[in-house]
């Protein structure tokens, strides 16, 4: 059974939170029965000035929120203006690389976790806007654009950095990479294989 069928009240709650925060809110179950939410999030300055309107598509894992696996967030807008290259933390399919799941600090079992996720997305898009400006400049100068603020390396290297900085993970704990597998069946094996 899919999570949105097993827990319809939680699915309703997710939609209620998203419809408050997103313009042009939509939600549904797609062809392979994945629950999704879509809409446009305003990215504001500290003074309330609107910098960007980012259209997002959020897909839930089929067993959400088991093993604290987060939803996947895709950027639908900006594909003509922003680049998903370099250290942009945007994957080739425009999935946002928001955090190493084990380091998000968000407990997705909490029914208000989507609010926390939107706060992370807002900060991410704010930084992304700065990064994309830097990236545009480096086209002329040939320098490497730097991500604003602290970050992990992009992709697999970032997951390894995060795991190495943790003070020890139980073999049966969810893998910090967010795969939904136990650590012993996922990155613990990958480390052993090195
Ligand atoms: Zn893993």
Description:
This protein is an alpha+beta fold. It folds into two domains: 3-148, Ubiquitin Conjugating Enzyme, CATH 3.10.110; 152-194, no CATH class. The chain has five helices and four strands. Strands 1-2-3-4 form a four-stranded antiparallel beta sheet. A hairpin with a 5-residue loop joins β1 and β2 (35-44). The model has no long low-confidence stretch (mean pLDDT 92). The structure holds zinc ion.
CATH superfamily heading of the largest domain: Ubiquitin Conjugating Enzyme
Query: How many structural units, i.e. domains?
Result: 2
Count of beta strands? 4
Report the CATH topology name of the largest domain. Ubiquitin Conjugating Enzyme
**Any idea what the radius of gyration is?**
18 Å
Bound molecules: zinc ion
Q: Averaged pLDDT, please?
A: 92
Largest sheet: 4 strands, antiparallel
Low-confidence parts: none
DSSP strand content: 15-25%
Name of the level-1 CATH class of the largest domain: Alpha Beta
State the separation between the terminal residues, measured CA to CA. Answer: 37 Å
Q: List the total number of helices.
A: 5
Set out the fold topology.
Elements: H1 3-6, H2 8-21, E1 23-29, E2 35-44, E3 50-59, E4 72-75, H3 113-141, H4 156-165, H5 187-193
Antiparallel strand pairs: 1-2, 2-3, 3-4
Task: Give me a quick take on this structure.
With 194 residues, the chain is α+β, with helices and mostly antiparallel strands. The protein has five helices and four strands, in the order H-H-E-E-E-E-H-H-H.
């Amino acid at each position: 059974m899919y999570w949105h069928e097993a827990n319809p009240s939680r699915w309703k709650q997710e939609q209620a939170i998203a419809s408050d925060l997103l313009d042009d809110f939509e939600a549904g179950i797609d062809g392979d029965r994945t629950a999704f939410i879509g809409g446009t999030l305003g990215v504001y300055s500290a003074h309330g000035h609107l910098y960007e309107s980012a259209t997002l598509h959020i897909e839930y894992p089929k067993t959400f929120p088991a093993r604290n696996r987060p939803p996947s967030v895709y950027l639908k807008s900006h594909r003509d203006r922003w680049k998903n290259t370099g250290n942009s933390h945007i994957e080739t399919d425009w999935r946002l690389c928001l955090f190493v799941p084990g380091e998000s600090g968000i407990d997705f079992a909490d029914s208000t976790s989507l609010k926390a996720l939107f706060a992370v997305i807002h900060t991410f898009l704010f930084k992304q806007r700065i990064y994309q400006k830097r990236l545009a400049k480096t086209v002329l100068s040939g320098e490497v654009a730097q991500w604003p603020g602290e970050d992990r390396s992009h992709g697999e290297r970032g997951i390894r950095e995060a795991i190495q900085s943790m003070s020890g993970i139980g073999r049966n704990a969810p893998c910090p990479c967010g795969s939904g597998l136990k650590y012993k069946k996922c990155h613990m094996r990958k480390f052993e294989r090195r």
